[in-house]
Amino acid sequence: MRLFVFALVFAAIPGCTCNPNSVNRGDLNLVSLDDEWELGRQLAAEVDAQVAPLADAEVEAYADAMGASLVAETELSDRAWTFTVIEDPAVNAFALPGGHVYIHSGLVAAAESEAELASVVAHEVAHVVARHSTERMVKAQGLSVVAGLVLGDDPGMIREIVAELIGQGVLARFSRTDETEADALGLRFMAEADYDPDGMAAMFETLLALRQRQPVLFERWFGTHPLSEDRVEAARAGAAEWDGSGWGGDPARFEAARRRVLARTPAAPLAM
To answer: Which residues are in the Peptidase M48 domain (predicted)?
Structure first.
């Protein structure tokens, strides 16, 4: 039963076709935002007990700043969010309900530009803003399952969900519709936060190239973020809709953070 519920939380269940400039306007989420944030708090507390954060205040401060700049462009900017860099050479990132985003140090090392890293963080922020996890869970099992978790009726279930999530790398197997929406919303958030939206397609291409060199480090990423040429082309086309040059951000701070990560994570993929 517990593993079944875990699958429900992150299952790929068909959803509606959504306007990429809105946030699930066509889908009904019966979970209140307060309950979703409480569920996220419980899940995050268990994740934090099972992973090792990167012990580098400068890198963490940079991730917090990037996350805050992206969240400021969303409909949920008034909510509390956390951004945590995990000391793990695997290239990955994931988000929990309720505004908790985790970035593996291997992803920071793999990104070749600030815009590439921002594209992944923006994509994960989009999953939270679109409320994909709780929406799919309610559709599959009903509100009572989520309500029970929010109320803390079975803390063992929370621990098992997180143990499976971390141990097997099954972080967020969202539907194709959800992934498409998260890409579109992520492009919007990063462009409005002044990160070059071309970074999303560039990040996809970087990941595909690096996968050929060190496939083990990319198993989790490609297991939960399938990449096709259509998805890369859609990212290019979406970026082209945003006019801009001389995009902002803080490239120097990104490079400094990446150097610090590479110094601490020698097994991470190096720049090509």
So the answer is: 61-237
Give catalytic status of residue 183 as yes or no. yes
Predicted pLDDT at 270 = 45
Whether residue 64 lies in the annotated active site: no
Three-state DSSP at 85 gives strand
Which tokens sit at 208?
A: 């595909």
Residue 120 contacts residue 172 (beta carbons within 8 Å): no
Mean pLDDT of the residues in the chain: 80
> How far is the C-alpha of 186 from the C-alpha of 20, rounded, in Å?
10
pLDDT reported for residue 30 = 73
Q: Name the residue ranges covered by the structural domains of the chain.
A: 2-12+29-264
**Which of 124, 179, 181, 196 is the catalytic position?**
124
pTM greater than 0.85: no
In DSSP terms, 102 is beta-bridged to 84, 94
CA distance 42 to 269: 33
